[in-house]
Fold this sequence. Notes:
Helix content is 81%, strand content 0%. The protein has 155 residues and is an all-alpha fold.
Amino acid sequence: xxxxxxxxxxxxxxxxxxxxxxxxxxxxxxxxxxxxxxxxxxxxxxxxxxxxxxxxxxxxxxxxxxxxxxxxxxxxxxxxxxxxxxxxxxxxxxxxxxxxxxxxxxxxxxxxxxxxxxxxxxxxxxxxxxxxxxxxxxxxxxxxxxxxxxxxxxx
Length: 155
């Protein structure tokens, strides 16, 4: 295989691996947000129930795009709970948390996803993968908005 083809394959594998971490972080944060939607209680129940639903719905729709980008790079997307669990940097949620603890936990989760996204953008741009960089940039914008809403709610 010519050197340029070999390095393109290596670049695709590296980007796909970073996207797999993003998929795992995104999926875990989606599950956490959905679980908090089910389990939130207290005087802010209605507004948080709605906020969490808006956010987990947006994340759910994006997860497929991330997995499909991994496939477009010629790699298999992780699909099992254990595969995703081994790749994520986000811990599972705790349904016994107070509403404020849930918000703080989601704030931390979005900060983690944002850091992962910045790594994907950086690597993708470095290797000239415009499509992956674009996908990650769009996801970065969405998670920054989710984080803003959570921070504003915590204030």
